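Researcher: For the record, we're logging two predictions in this thread. I'll number them. Prediction 1 follows.
Model: Prediction 1, sequence and structure:
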Amino acid sequence: MARFLITFPAAAMVAPADEMAAVDRDAHAVIAQAKAEGVYVFAGGIDGSVPPVRVSADGTVTEGGYPSARRLDGGFAVLDLPSRNAALSWAARFARACRCDQEVRAFGFDPAA
């Protein structure tokens, strides 16, 4: 098993306002399926009302994230899956539910973690 990150940026969520209740319902249904199948690790959305900060090795706190990195926002799910193909299948479920494309990334395995 490997852990996969399935995400979408907030700008990708372009469903009409009158569909948002259905999007919410459908996305939560996919999460419920993941839990029922025992592959759910965690999921959520980045809280855009809380600005990011960057903390250096000496403890200095700087407002904002890395200047060169794209803004991190939107929704995400982490699932424990047997293969990349399984991750792509789950991403398709989320894409249908959220009405937007999903990105899939694999976490590197660290036996000490």
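Researcher: Logged. Prediction 2.
Model: Prediction 2, sequence and structure:
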Amino acid sequence: MLGYRIASVFMSGLLATAMVASTAAQAADAYPSRPITLVVPYSAGGPTDVVSRSLAAAMTRELGQSVIVENRVGAGGTVAAAYVARAQPDGYTILIHHNGMATAPALYKKLSYDPLKDFEYIGQVADVPMTLMGRKDLPASTLPELIRYVRQNRDKVSLANAGLGAVSQLCGLLFEESVQTRMTAVPYPGAGPALTALLGGQVDLLCDQTTATLPQIKAGRVKLFGVTTAQRIAALPQAPTLQEGGLKGFEVKVWHGIYAPKGTSPGITKRITEALQKGLRDPAVVAKLTELGAQIVPLDKQTPQGLQQWLKAESDKWQPLLRNLKVDAD
């Protein structure tokens, strides 16, 4: 009799497991049956938003349901990330985020989510190169001249950024570390005001992404000292890399990845990844990102594994630097 009861319990457990698996499979097969929300942590019209809307249009065509961009701004992108981490893991609320996913744990001591553990990975999207620029009348004209100028003038040199945790701040911190010289940091409430200050000669230097800086560089309104990628970029073929100028190993870029809440089924995440990959081959998306100076990542990075490995590597790169410099928001 006892053996019968044990067997009955065992069979009930197997049946329940099978039913759960069947339900998950049916949900994945039916996905998507309604619009999907792509949460963007930054304001409408900004670089990440522009990338997101171009991609959302292409993914809409692939998925057969609208991918709606929703901007949830605040606290360096952590408001949006926390919102998606708490969302239902059904594939209808997903997140696009940049380098802030790697740096947030070092900047916010009371972070309500773990970027490495509280999400399912979909894939990387595109990299946006950055440019190191100076005001038009800055005495230095080449990177070696700039390094000498910075070391001679030290804290008299002002280095603008777009606020705590912004990639422009990270780029500036890495530049200071590379030249072993501290400058006067001048934070602004966004990339636009920081660039305006540089154009007006109110600050000496700014490191910002090509999506914002290309027009100013091409018009000769600023001095360009180099691009921050490992290789020269097609949008500015004449511009040397900072590595070419003597800063060995210097590489900073704005990278974007897509995430879903932890627990989203493999079938659904696979469907979103496939839509992402096809969206990144869409001619309209390719043309728009190229126009912005962005570079679509290789196919092996447009995967959950590719994004997971990159996020871990970027976390290991930036978090120790930020903690050593005691840069935080709390």
